Amino acid sequence: MSANSHSTLTSTERSFTRRLQAFGVQDSEIALLDTLLHAPVGYQTGEVLHPSRPGAPPFFLLSGWACLSRELNDGRRQVVAFLLPGDAVGFDLLTQSRESTKITAVTAVNVQRVRPSLIGQITGSPGLSRALAIASDQQQTRLINQVVRLGRQTAYERCAHLLLELHARLAEVGETYGDSFRLPVKQEILADALGLSLVHVNRTLQQLRRDGLVEVHGGLAILQDRAALAEISEFRAL
Do domains 2-143 and 154-233 have the same CATH topology? Predict the structure, then answer.
């Protein structure tokens, strides 16, 4: 874990401001938010971002990917949600720190935490408060989608739906390239998110490729027919 200078942040690492602006937050409120945050901190792959205790200060994910997961005693893991650049973490019920779950860096990440004594100023700002409420509602909708994926969809439908969801979320902060996006996670992590074995994920991605729908290689996912994928998986953008 290491501290970074705020002045060296790239536009990508300030993706949370882009997301807030999309929710209607004014520049003056974003400037206020900047005064309420600690300096950026970096974490390496596999490091825990959120301590497993209630009341840990929320943060904004500036860059990189993380995941919220629950681990069983025998080492099996269920990834409940992926956390992507621009996400506000710890403001909603799902991502608030608790002993039963943890948030882990899937790639190298940079975060900015809220100064605990100043959290009230965020919730007291109408624009910021409204934006966080919208983000929380979207997080709850994605949780419902995850439950449906795991409970009722086939492996083929699950993969299609998750890839569309990731593309849509990354597009909101300018991290897609047309129909493609960086997918910097191993298939083992996708398996943990989809409730499938590694072999099953691999076979399903191969079938999607043979059907001319998805190509995944070299850390890049290419959605070759988003309309067909959406019809197959009943995906609806938020």
Answer: no
Query: Taking the domains of the chain in order of start, what are their residue ranges?
Result: 2-143, 154-233
What is the CATH code of the structural domain delimited by 2-143? 2.60.120.10
Q: Tell me: domain 154-233, CATH 1.10.10.10, correct?
A: yes
Which residues does residue 105 pair with via DSSP β-bridges, in sequence order?
A: 66
For the segment 57-77, what is each residue's pLDDT rounded down to a tens digit?
999 999 999 999 999 999 999
Model confidence pTM above 0.90: yes
Give pLDDT, residue 193.
Answer: 98
How far apart, in whole angstroms, are the C-alpha atoms of residue 109 and residue 45?
8
**Dist. CA 218–CA 122, nearest whole Å:** 40
User: What percentage of the chain reaches a pLDDT higher than 70?
Assistant: 94
- Residues 108 and 50: their CA atoms lie apart, in Å, by 15
The DSSP annotation for 70-100 comes to EE-TTS-EEEEEEE-TT-EESSSTTTS--TT
Among the listed ranges 45-49, 97-101, 126-130, 162-166, which one has the minimum average pLDDT value?
A: 97-101
Predicted local distance difference test score (pLDDT) of residue 8? 44
Comparing CA positions, the residue from 159, 211, 207, 153 lying closest to residue 183 is 159
CB 128 within 8 A of CB 20: yes
Distance of alpha carbon 88 from alpha carbon 62, whole angstroms: 9
